[in-house]
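ok new one. same drill as before - structure tokens go in, u give me an amino acid for every spot. 137 of them this time. try not to just spam alanines like last time pls lmao
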């Protein structure tokens, strides 16, 4: 296998995941509003719904940007995995597996993608590669 292919696969995966999370965070912050998200979270039984809404909105928005850039990948991915685990537990678990029925299929797939990019070697096309390269020097 060509060595550079892994870096491109990692980049494409990061860009897609990052885009998904940025769009969801953008929706929570700028379209729906975090007050409404907090109301929805409260109705679902999410503890501390105001704090959880801020966490979900900003982690998705800023974490999505970080994932797309390849910046602080382990940290960003863990924060987003926690976000998706909460989504599965509070919003999707009772609906079963299938996304078409409101289930946890999509958040589970996002967790898999986050684990893959968050704990794999970042590759030369990630900001982390340049940051850690300079730190090692």
């Amino acid at each position: 296998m060509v060595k550079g292919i892994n870096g491109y696969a990692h980049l494409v995966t990061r860009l897609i995941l990052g885009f998904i999370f940025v769009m969801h965070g953008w929706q929570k912050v700028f379209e729906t509003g975090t007050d409404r998200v907090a109301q929805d979270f409260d109705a679902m039984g999410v503890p501390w719904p105001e704090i959880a809404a801020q966490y979900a909105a900003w982690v998705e928005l800023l974490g999505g940007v970080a994932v797309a850039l390849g910046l602080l990948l382990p940290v960003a991915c863990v924060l987003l995995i926690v976000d998706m685990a909460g989504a599965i537990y509070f919003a999707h678990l009772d609906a079963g597996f299938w996304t078409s029925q409101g289930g946890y299929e999509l958040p589970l797939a996002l967790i898999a993608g986050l684990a893959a990019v968050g704990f794999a070697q970042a590759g030369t096309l990630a900001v982390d590669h340049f940051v850690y390269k300079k730190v090692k020097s």
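The chain has a mean pLDDT of 93. and btw The chain has one domain: 3-136.
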